[in-house]
Design goal:
Elements: E1 6-7, H1 8-15, E2 18-20, E3 26-27, E4 29-30, E5 40-44, H2 50-55, E6 60-63, E7 76-78, H3 82-93, E8 108-109, E9 114-115, E10 120-121, E11 126-127, E12 132-133, E13 138-139, E14 144-145, E15 150-151, E16 156-157, E17 162-163, E18 167-169, E19 174-175, E20 180-183, E21 188-191, E22 194-197, E23 204-206, E24 211-212, E25 217-219, E26 226-228, E27 233-234, E28 239-240, E29 245-246, E30 251-252, E31 257-258, E32 263-264, E33 269-270, E34 275-276, E35 281-282, E36 287-288, E37 293-294, E38 303-305, E39 310-311, H4 312-340
Parallel strand pairs: 4-5, 5-6, 6-7, 8-11, 9-12, 10-13, 11-14, 12-15, 13-16, 14-17, 15-18, 16-19, 17-20, 18-23, 19-24, 20-25, 23-26, 24-27, 25-28, 26-29, 27-30, 28-31, 30-33, 31-34, 32-35, 33-36, 34-37, 36-38
Antiparallel strand pairs: 1-3, 2-7, 21-22, 38-39
Length: about 350
């Protein structure tokens, strides 16, 4: 099958941009400026990449108005936000593969399981007793869907995904390879006879349009529920503990962890390798810088960084003072050496 191709004129029409150069130039893929070939599309929206743009061989470049005068490929499309415009082009050049269909002969369907219309189940996957799969759900190979699990319409599990009993997925949920949802949280009580495990009987609920990256884990609630709000996106290797509640449209980058019973409002953005301790309240639209260690409640709309985390301005001030102190110590050491010589 031949690769999809678009002319520069078609790309300009698709993104609503102004074409400069030959409209018949054809592109079949997208690529970064420094490696793009004459049959590939790229974008230029940051002046720090001006040298790469100048030497680029890209056939067509999406470019922001303020950079349009730079020397570089002749065929360019001027558009306000080139990176966002690229999102309109990608589906045309990279159409999704045909949707999986049917149930593989090696799949195991438990007693009482209910399957909606056009459900697809991959090789060696197991659907537990009384599980409910809505219309057009796709289950990849080697998945384990536990008993009584409910999966909303148009949701897609990639390979080797595990959904424990007590898990509920909304519509259009997307879980990448190796995701584990609904496992017991880390809950124990020390007693005279040893450490006793707290039984976990709460649910784990992923609302509509949630996407979870590869090898991430989300625990079920102990008694209350763990909830991932609608539209939230979790990166690879993210850990969400029991009873956590994320609001809608939260974004969490890789290797971050949120401890038990912490609540986040809507629209929170968490950088990579952030740790949030338990039983905290983070308001709406809170932002956490990469590597932060959060130990306090955070009001709406604030940005915090550092470990322990503090408001961004305080953290920047403290960091600046630390480095100034280090510079001052080196200067004192230099002066002492000069006096002793």
């Amino acid at each position: 099958m031949s690769e999809p191709a678009l002319t520069a004129e078609a790309v300009a029409h698709l993104v609503g941009g102004a074409l400069r150069g030959g409209g018949t130039v054809r592109v079949v893929r997208v690529a970064a400026l420094d490696r793009a070939a004459p049959n590939e599309l790229s974008f230029f929206s940051n002046p720090r990449y001006a040298s790469e743009f100048a030497s680029s061989r890209a056939g067509v470049v999406l470019i922001s108005p303020e950079l349009a005068a730079h020397e570089g490929p002749a065929c360019r499309i001027i558009v306000d936000k080139p990176q966002e415009a690229m999102l309109l082009v990608l589906p045309a050049l990279y159409p999704p593969p045909p949707r999986a269909t049917g149930i593989h002969p090696s799949a195991v369907i438990g007693k009482g399981a209910r399957l909606g219309k056009d459900v697809a189940i991959g090789a060696h996957s197991v659907i537990g007793e009384n599980a409910v799969l809505a219309d057009r759900v796709v289950i990849g190979p080697l998945c384990d869907v536990g008993r009584d699990v409910a999966i909303g319409e148009d949701s897609h599990l990639m390979s080797a995904v595990t959904l424990y009993p007590g898990t509920m997925l909304g519509a259009r949920v997307r879980l990448h390879a190796g995701v584990r949802v609904g496992s017991d949280g880390f809950g124990y009580v020390p007693t005279k006879t040893g450490v006793q495990k707290i039984p976990h009987v709460g649910r784990c609920i992923l609302e509509d349009d949630v996407e979870v990256g590869a090898n991430s884990t989300i625990d079920r609630g102990s008694i209350a529920d763990t909830v991932i709000g609608a539209g939230s996106k979790l990166d690879n290797l993210v850990m969400i503990a029991h009873n956590v509640r994320l609001g809608k449209m939260c974004l969490i980058a890789a290797q971050s962890g949120i401890a038990g019973s912490t609540r986040l409002g809507d629209g929170c953005m968490i950088g990579g390798q952030v740790g949030v301790t338990g039983h905290l309240e983070l308001g709406n639209n809170v932002k956490l810088g990469a590597g932060s260690g959060v130990m306090n409640d955070i009001p709406d709309g604030e940005m915090w960084s550092g470990a322990p985390a503090r408001p961004q301005r305080e953290w920047l001030k403290a960091t600046s003072a630390f480095y100034k102190l280090a510079d001052r110590m080196r200067e004192i050491e230099r002066q002492l050496r000069e006096r002793s010589s």
